[in-house]
Every structure is written in structure tokens, then in C-alpha cells.
Amino acid sequence: MSLTDTIIIGAGPYGSSLAAHLKAAGVDHQILGEPMGAWRNLMPPGMLLRSEAFASSLHAPCSGFTVEDYCRLKGLPYRPLGMALPLETFVEYALWFQSNLVGEIQPVDVLALRRVGDEFQLSLTDGRSLTARRVVIALGLKGFAQTPPALRGLPAQYASHSELYGNLEWARDKDIAIVGGGQSALGLSALLNELGARAHVLMRESSVVWHERPQAGRNIMSRLRRPDAGLGRGWRSVFLSEFPGVFHLLDPKRRKQIMEHTYGASGAWWLHDRVVGKVQISHRTEVRSAEIENDRVVLNVLTDGKKARVSADHVIAATGFKTDMRQHAFLSKDLADAISNQAGMPELTSHYETRVRGLYVVGPACAHSFGPVMRFVYGTKHASPTVARHIVGSLKAGARQRAWPVVAHAPMPERSGE
Ligand SMILES: Cc1cc2nc3c(=O)[nH]c(=O)nc-3n(C[C@H](O)[C@H](O)[C@H](O)COP(=O)(O)OP(=O)(O)OC[C@H]3O[C@@H](n4cnc5c(N)ncnc54)[C@H](O)[C@@H]3O)c2cc1C
After folding, report:
1. Which of 151, 187, 190, 339 could form a disulfide with 354 if both were Cys (CB 3.0 to 4.6 A apart)?
2. Closest atom of ligand 1 relative to the 10 alpha carbon
3. Which ranges constitute the DSSP H helices of 5-129?
4. CATH code for the domain in which residue 189 is found
5. Which PANTHER family match (predicted)?
6. Which of 139, 160, 186, 240 maximizes ligand 1 atoms within 8 Å of its Cβ, making it the mutation to test the pocket?
């Protein structure tokens, strides 16, 4: 079994961006996973990105590989703000990024990862095994879907989580209840409505929080008062978009507080006219239980404290994600226990390394350490250069140690014949 220095698990934006940085730095590495698998298979065709176009580029080690560069090359329309980038354009852009800057991506999944001595051993779905000195986990939101207890255990034919979409053709002409009040719920409701399904959104909130439409060409005073940043408008967004290293230095309680009170359930500006007046929305509504009756799913809900029943062909839980590394079934128990020390969340050093030396986590799973920017592609601009720099630094330190190992530890040669 040959030894690779670094193996990246996951070929989405985070894994690909890091691979580009490692390749540029000459680090021996491999990258595993279906290229842009989550974006190609689990998101609905026709979806528009929530992030602004200028904030949707994978970070590259050199210039010339942003969404803007891609659109210019392909003659596609581009505006940094207020454009609503189509999913299809973003995926094509990311595949172009990979074909230019990332080495060969092996479209296999990891079945098992364990630590043996100072190395990591990986078993793959194609039957091979690999060994590496370092492993980076870049699996996005995989395994973290949260379903409310009331909807758990319903047969898959009647209930699913928004993480799984995917083509929505199956829902044409059907009654679809969607639980949730954020971008996933609202985005799915618009697409389903336009497809000819009858979508009904059930949300706890008393109104939808809509993002304001970004305005290009604001005057300097307006931009100084509320600058545009990767995650939105305002100085708070600037801090959270640009300074994840400072966020990491905050007290864990403060970090948790910020995570709980920023970027709550909300809808992108471009969804407003596709939802309001077109999709049925029940506010202040909570699902208490569910059952199957006459081939339909019946939800027992409380709306403004009053009991009601909502019947549908299918219910989608658009109820978000919660990081829990223990959900990664491929991690050996000792690795999962060692890194999931805060109710499943990994505690990370300032260079994204877990408590297991040589094991790193990048992307949404490290949002509680580095802030909400890690939930977005924009965060690749922080994670990729930092992790690549640390790996290069470790390699150099290792090479120095190997060059002079005798100085510190070699025993003195025995003198003989005196
Ligand atoms: C509906 C929806 C809309 C979103 N819209 C936006 C948006 O507009 N802008 C934005 O910035 N973010 C958006 N996000 C968040 C987005 O998913 C993340 O920002 C981004 O995809 C994280 O990238 P990643 O590389 O960490 O993971 P992912 O893109 O999820 O990639 C994971 C990779 O891991 C691979 N993989 C999975 N299991 C294994 C395994 N066992 N072994 C090997 N490889 C494996 C997959 O094939 C894939 O290559 C959205 C998320 C959702 C769910």
C-alpha cells in the first residue's frame, strides 16, 4: 500500500479548492469523491444560488478562476451583486475550476477511516485501500440533516428531508407540505409551485424574513455605512465574512451565541415574487405528530395554539442541519470519539486540525469554530490557504527533523579498545 502525504475526502467546493492549493504548493495528495456530487445530485435543477455571484467563487491559488472569469470566458451574463446565479452555471464553473486547477479526482467514496500508528488507513468503495499521513474531511452537510421528531420514522414514500433534492418531477400535480421557514423551504415551494405541484409551507415564524435586494452603484456614504460583504450587507457581515480567525479566538459561549442569532431562517430577495401570493404559507404553525391515512400523510399541527390537520401526498422537512461528526459512519469509533468532543462538533485549532494530529475538517462542519462563513463557498478563501500553509509548514518541519535526527536523540558511540 503506497503512502500519500494528504488525502482529501470530498470533491465539492472545499475539497476542490484545497486540492488546487496543495497542487500549486507541490504537496503529494489525492482527492476522493464524486466531483461536485452534492450540487449535481442533491439540489433541484433550476435552483438559483442564495449567495451573490461575487461570493460564489472557489478560492484558487492564482488569479483567473472566479465565477466572473468563467462567465467572461463563456460569454455569460455576470453581475457581482443582484444577479442570482443559476445552479447549472455554478456547477459548470466548479467543474471548469477542477479541470484546470485540480489533479485527478477519484470518484469513489470512503467506507472506513482509521488511525494506525502515525498514519491513516482508508478503505474505498472500489475495494482499494490507501494510506496517508494526513486526511482532510470535506464532506459538506452530509449526514447532518435534522428532521423534527414528529416526522421521524415516516415511510420514505411520504416524507423526506430537503437535503435530498434532486429532480422534483415526481411531485407534479401532488400536494406537498413543506415544514420550515428558510431558504430551502421557500426555494422548494417556488420550484414546486412552478412545476404544477400544490405546495403548502408550514413555518413557526410569524412572517418571512426576506433579504433586501442588493443595489449596485450605491454612493460612497451608503457603502461606508453598510458595506457589502460575502455573507450580506453591514459591518457585522464584514466581520463574519472576512475574519473567521478572530471568530475562532472568541470564547466558545460567545461563538455559540453568535451562531444562534445570526443568519436565521430567511429567503433570498429573488424568491419574494415567486412565493408571495403564489404559495400557501401557514405562519406560527408547528407540527406535533404525523400519521398515514388513505395513502396520504396527515400532519397534526398547532396554529396560533389551535389544533388543525394538514393532509398531503408528501411532506418535506426543510428543517436544516446540525453538525455531528458521529454521523460519519466511515470514521472508526476512536476517531469519531476523539474529534466529536462537543456534542458531535469537532474542536479545531486555528489551522482547522482536529484533536487527532493530521486530521483536518473544512467546510460547514467547522462553522461553530470559524463562524457562519464556513457554511458557504465564500469560506474557501479562508480555509484552503490556511490548511495548505499548515501542511506545507509541517512537511518542512518534518524534513528538517529527518535531516538532523542524530543531534537530539542518537546515543553517543561507545568507545572501545582503551
Ligand atoms: C439547497 C442548498 C443550497 C445552497 N446554496 C448555497 C449557496 O447559494 N451558496 C453557498 O455558498 N452555499 C450554499 N449552500 C451550502 C453549500 O452546500 C456549501 O457551502 C458547500 O457545498 C460546502 O462545500 P463542501 O465542499 O464542504 O461540501 P459538498 O459540496 O457537499 O461536497 C461534498 C463532497 O463529498 C463527497 N462525498 C460524500 N460522501 C463521501 C465519502 N464517503 N467518501 C468520499 N467522498 C464523499 C461528495 O461526493 C462531494 O464531492 C447550499 C446548501 C444547500 C443544501
Report:
1. 339
2. 34
3. 13-25, 37-41, 67-74, 87-101
4. 3.50.50.60
5. L-ORNITHINE N(5)-MONOOXYGENASE (PTHR38663:SF1), PTHR38663
6. 139
